[in-house]
UniProtKB/TrEMBL annotation, chain A:
Keyword annotations from UniProtKB, A to Z: ATP-binding, Cell membrane, Ion transport, Magnesium, Membrane, Metal-binding, Nucleotide-binding, Phosphoprotein, Translocase, Transmembrane, Transmembrane helix, Transport
Protein name per UniProt: Cadmium-translocating P-type ATPase
Subcellular location, record wording: Cell membrane
Membrane topology: Multi-pass membrane protein
Entry's family note: Belongs to the cation transport ATPase (P-type) (TC 3.A.3) family. Type IB subfamily.
Lineage: Bacteria, Pseudomonadati, Pseudomonadota, Alphaproteobacteria, Sphingomonadales
InterPro entries: ATPase_P-typ_cyto_dom_N, ATPase_P-typ_P_site, ATPase_P-typ_TM_dom_sf, ATPase_P-typ_transduc_dom_A_sf, ATPase_P-type_domA, HAD-like_sf, HAD_sf, Heavy-metal-associated_CS
Ranges where the HMA domain occurs: 16-81
PANTHER family with a match to the protein in the record: ATP7, ISOFORM B (PTHR43520), CATION-TRANSPORTING P-TYPE ATPASE-RELATED (PTHR43520:SF5)
Transmembrane segments: 101-124, 130-147, 167-185, 191-209, 347-368, 374-399, 659-676, 682-703
Gene that specifies this protein: cadA
From TrEMBL, chain B:
Name of the protein this chain belongs to: Cbb3-type cytochrome oxidase assembly protein CcoS
A Pfam cross-reference name: FixS
Organism listed in the record: Aurantiacibacter sediminis
Top-level taxon of the source organism: Bacteria
Name of the coding gene: ccoS
Statement: the UniProt record of this protein carries the keyword rRNA-binding: no
Keywords from the UniProt entry: Membrane, Transmembrane, Transmembrane helix
Listed InterPro entries: Cyt_oxidase_maturation_cbb3 (IPR004714)
Length: 707, 50
C-alpha cells in the first residue's frame, strides 16, 4: 500500500476518522483506486478499505465536511454513505469476545492438562499437591475470563425465570471449580480443574464456529436508503434552482432530474419524456417509458432525458422507505424461530438438574456424607452436559455451509440451514430469479452486415436495451462496423453514418407487444425483439424440488401475460401482479395453513417477502437489500443451487440429529457411572473428548455434499 | 523434581507467548478483513506509468 500523508504543513490540525459504507467495492482494483486516489486530495491523510465489510475508513482533517468526502468517493465512481455505528456492529464485538475467550480457554486447557495427566499417571504426595495448586492458579483466571459468555447468558435467563443450555453449564463449571479449590486446600486426591476448563474450551469452540458463520457480510438496512437520491435540485417559483436534501423535500415541490440521476422522492412527471430504470424497485430490468403525468418512485434512475417531477411523497413516505419499513417488521416474525439446540436444551436442562439433585439427595440419605454426595452430583452435572451437545449443531452446520459455498451458495447462519431444511413449499419471483433478469436480443433476422452495424451503434449507448443487444452480438462473435459520427438522442435512439448511409438504432415506429428496438440502414428497417430467457436448468431444479416433496409456485409482481407464459412452460401455479403487501399476505395465508414457505426472489419488492418467509434465497444479481434479507445467496446462472441448498440443509439436519443421538447414547452409559460415583476425573476427561471427536468426525461426512 | 522447576515455567511461558501473540494479532486487526487480504495481493506496489 502506498498511501503517504499529503497534508499541508500549515494545516497540521487534528485528524479524525470517518467511516463510509461503499457497496460498490468488488475487486482489488477498487481497493487500489480508493486507497491511492483519495489521499491525493487536500485534507485527506489516508484511506483504508475493509473489503470484507465493504467499508472505507478515511482519516481526514477535522474541518473537512463529510459531504466533500462522499463527493470525492463519488468522483472515483463509488456510491458511498456515511456509516453510523449501528446495532449490527455489536455482533462483531461479540464474535471477537468469543475468539479471545476461546484462545484463553485453549491456553488454560493445555497447561492444566499437562499437570493433570501427571497426577493421573501416579504423581503423589507433595508433587500432586503442587500440581493441584498450579492447576488452580492457571484455571481460576482462565475460568473467570473464558466462562463469562456462559455466566452472562445464564444469569440473563435466570433473571427472567427461564432456563437455557448455559444454566447447567455455568452451575457445573462453578461447582466443579469451588469443589476443586476446597480439595486442593484440604490436600485431597481429586481436583476437577481440567474438566471445568476443557468443558469451557469445547463449548466455546462451538460458539465461535457459530459466530464466525454469522458475521459474514451484513451491512445493515442502510444500504437500501443509500440508493435513494440524497438530494434534489428544486425549482423555486421564480425559476431559480437550489439543492435540497432528500429528507427536507416537501410534497408539491418540483424537482429537476437530469439524465443519469436517481430520484430522491416519489412524484408525478410534470414536464419531459424519458425512460426510467425501475430495477431497484421491481427487479424489472427493462426500462419504462415515462411522460407527463406518469408516476415515478424514489430510487428509480432517470436514463435518457431531463425530467421535471412534482413531488407527491418524500422522505419516509416514499414507496422505497415504506418497503424498508415493511421488511423491518416482517423480519421480526422470523426471530421467533427457536434454534434446535435451544429446543433440545429445554427438554434437557430440567432432566439434568433433577438428576444431579437426586444423586445428591440419594447419596446423602445413603449416608455418604455431604462431601462425597456433592462430588457425585457435580460429576453428574459435568458428564451430562457433554461438549458433544455444544458441538453437535455448529460442527455440522459449518461443514455444510462450507460445502455449499464451494457450489456457489452462501448461507448466512446456522439458523438459516435449520429453516431451509423445514420448508415444504417454494415461491419463486419471475424476473431475475426464474429468468436471468437481463434481456437477450433476438438477432436471427439480421444478416452479417446488419449485425456489425447494430453492434457499432449499440455499444455507443448506455441504454439497457442497447447494452443487451451489444452483449448478444458479441456472444455471436460479431465485429463492429466502422460507423462514424455516432450521436445519441435521449428517448429516440442512436444515430450514425456508415459507408455514407444514414443508420440508426431507434424506437420502433409501432409499439407492438414486448420490448423491441428498430435497426434502420438507409431505408431498410428491421425490428429486433428482446426476451428474458429462463435460467437453463430452471425445469430440472423445479423437478428436483418436487422430488423432495416441495411444491413450487410463481409469485411475481409482473404483468400476468408474461408470467403465465413461463408458468405454462414450467407447469407451475402462478400469481401475477402481486405488490409487496400481496406477497406478504400470501406468505401469511400459507403459514396459517401450517405450511413453511421458501421465498426465492431478487427485487426490492421481494424484500419484505424474503424477510417474512420461513426461509429465503436470493440470486447474487439481486439488489443489496434483498441479499441482506435472504438467508442465502446463490451466484451464477444456474437455479440448481436452490435445490442443492434444500438437499444439503436436510442432510445437515440428519447429521445433527445423529449427533444428538450419539450424545444421548453416551449419556445412557455415562450417567449411571456418574450416579454411582464411579466417574473419576480421568474417565470424565476421556469420555468428554471421545464424544466430541465422534461428533466432529460425523459432521465432517457432510463435506462430501460439495462433490 | 529439579527438572520440573525449569520445565513448568517454560511450558507456561511458551503458552503465554502464543496467547499474547494471538491477542496482539487481533489488536492489530489482522482478522478484520480476511477477504481483503486475498485481494490486496493483486495490487501492484508501484503506480502504473501514465
Amino acid at each position: 500500500m502506498t498511501v503517504a500523508a499529503r497534508l499541508d504543513p500549515a494545516s497540521s490540525e487534528a485528524l479524525v476518522d470517518t467511516r463510509f459504507t461503499v457497496p460498490g467495492i468488488r475487486c482489488a482494483g477498487c481497493i487500489a483506486k480508493i486507497e491511492r486516489e483519495l489521499p491525493k486530495l487536500k485534507g485527506i491523510a489516508n484511506a483504508r478499505v475493509n473489503f470484507s465489510a465493504k467499508r472505507v475508513a478515511i482519516r481526514h482533517a477535522e474541518n473537512m465536511p463529510h459531504d466533500a468526502l462522499t463527493h470525492a468517493l463519488q468522483e472515483l465512481g463509488f456510491e458511498a454513505q456515511e456509516f453510523d455505528d449501528n446495532p449490527l456492529g455489536s455482533e462483531d464485538a461479540e464474535a471477537k469476545r468469543l475468539q479471545r475467550a476461546l484462545a484463553v480457554a485453549g491456553f488454560g486447557m493445555m497447561n492444566v492438562m499437562l499437570l493433570s495427566v501427571s497426577v493421573w499417571s501416579g504423581a503423589g504426595g507433595v508433587t500432586r499437591d503442587l500440581f493441584h495448586w498450579l492447576s488452580g492458579v492457571i484455571a481460576l483466571p482462565v475460568i473467570a475470563y473464558a466462562g463469562q459468555p456462559f455466566f452472562r447468558s445464564a444469569w440473563m435467563a435466570l433473571k427472567y425465570r427461564r432456563t437455557n443450555m448455559d444454566v447447567p453449564i455455568s452451575i457445573g463449571v462453578l461447582l466443579a471449580t469451588a469443589l476443586s479449590i476446597y480439595e486442593t486446600m484440604a490436600g485431597g486426591g481429586h481436583a476437577y480443574f481440567e474438566s471445568a476448563v476443557m468443558l469451557l474450551f469445547f463449548l466455546l469452540a462451538g460458539r465461535a464456529l457459530d459466530a464466525a458463520m454469522r458475521t459474514r457480510t451484513r451491512a445493515g438496512i442502510g444500504a437500501l436508503l443509500s440508493r435513494m437520491g440524497r438530494s434534489a435540485m428544486v425549482i423555486a417559483d421564480d425559476g431559480s434552482f437550489r439543492s435540497v436534501p432528500s429528507q427536507d423535500l416537501q410534497p408539491g415541490m418540483t424537482m429537476a432530474v437530469a439524465a443519469g440521476e436517481s430520484l430522491a422522492a416519489d412524484g408525478v412527471v410534470a414536464q419531459g419524456e424519458s425512460a426510467i430504470d425501475n430495477a431497484m424497485l421491481t427487479g424489472e430490468s427493462m426500462p419504462e417509458q415515462v411522460s407527463v403525468d406518469s408516476i415515478v418512485y424514489a430510487g428509480a434512475v432517470n436514463l435518457s432525458a431531463p425530467l421535471r417531477v412534482r413531488v407527491t411523497a418524500a422522505a419516509s413516505n416514499t414507496l422505497l422507505a415504506e418497503i424498508a419499513q415493511l421488511m423491518d417488521e416482517a423480519g421480526q416474525s422470523r426471530s421467533r424461530y427457536v434454534r434446535i439446540a435451544d429446543r433440545a436444551s429445554r427438554l434437557y436442562a430440567p432432566v439434568v438438574h433433577s438428576l444431579a439433585l437426586l444423586a445428591f439427595l440419594g447419596w446423602m440419605t445413603a449416608g455418604a456424607g455431604w462431601h462425597q454426595s456433592l462430588v457425585i452430583a457435580i460429576a453428574v452435572l459435568i458428564i451430562t452436559c457433554p461438549c458433544a451437545m455444544g458441538l453437535a449443531v455448529p460442527a455440522a452446520q459449518i461443514v455444510t455451509s462450507g460445502a455449499l459455498l464451494k457450489r456457489g451458495l452462501l448461507v448466512k447462519d446456522g439458523s438459516a440451514l435449520e429453516r431451509l431444511a423445514e420448508v415444504d413449499i417454494a415461491l419463486f419471483d419471475k424476473t431475475g430469479t426464474l429468468t436471468l433478469g437481463t434481456p437477450r436480443a433476438d438477432i436471427t433476422a439480421l444478416d452479417a452486415e446488419a449485425r456489425s452495424v447494430a453492434l457499432a451503434l449499440a455499444q455507443a449507448s448506455n441504454h439497457p436495451l442497447s447494452k443487451a443487444l451489444a452483449s448478444s452480438l458479441r456472444d455471436a462473435d460479431v465485429e463492429a462496423a466502422n460507423v462514424i459520427s455516432i450521436s445519441e438522442r435521449g428517448g429516440d435512439g442512436v444515430f450514425g453514418t456508415w459507408r455514407a448511409i444514414e443508420v440508426a438504432l431507434e424506437r420502433p415506429d409501432c409499439m407492438q407487444a414486448g420490448l423491441s428496438s428498430q435497426l434502420r440502414i438507409g431505408v431498410d428497417t428491421s425490428v429486433i425483439g428482446f426476451h428474458d430467457p429462463l435460467r437453463s436448468d430452471a425445469e430440472e431444479a423445479i423437478t428436483a424440488l418436487s422430488d423432495m416433496g416441495i411444491e413450487s409456485r410463481i409469485l411475481s409482481g409482473d404483468r400476468s401475460a408474461s408470467v403465465s407464459t413461463i408458468a405454462r412452460e414450467l407447469g407451475l401455479h402462478a400469481r401475477a401482479g402481486a405488490s409487496p403487501q400481496d406477497k406478504l399476505a400470501m406468505l401469511d395465508h400459507l403459514r396459517r395453513q401450517g405450511r413453511l414457505p421458501l421465498m426465492v426472489g431478487d427485487g426490492i419488492n421481494d424484500g419484505p417477502a424474503l424477510a417474512a418467509a420461513h426461509a429465503s434465497i436470493a440470486p447474487g444479481s439481486a439488489s443489496d437489500v434483498s441479499q441482506q434479507a435472504a438467508d442465502a445467496v446463490f451466484t451464477g446462472r444456474a437455479l440448481m443451487p436452490v435445490a442443492a441448498a434444500i438437499r444439503a440443509s436436510r442432510a445437515c439436519m440428519r447429521v445433527v440429529r445423529q449427533n444428538f443421538g450419539f450424545a444421548f447414547i453416551y449419556n445412557v452409559f455415562a450417567v449411571p457411572l456418574a450416579l454411582f460415583g464411579m466417574v473419576t476425573p480421568l474417565i470424565a476427561a476421556i469420555a468428554m473428548s471421545g464424544s466430541s471427536i465422534v461428533v466432529v468426525a460425523n459432521s465432517l461426512r457432510l463435506a462430501r455434499l460439495a462433490r | 523434581m529439579s527438572g520440573l522447576l525449569i520445565l513448568i515455567p517454560v511450558a507456561l511461558g511458551l503458552g503465554l507467548l502464543g496467547l499474547i501473540t494471538f491477542f496482539w494479532a487481533m489488536q492489530q486487526g489482522q482478522f478484520e478483513d480476511l477477504d481483503g487480504a486475498a485481494q490486496r495481493v493483486l495490487i501492484d506496489d508501484e503506480e502504473p506509468e501514465e
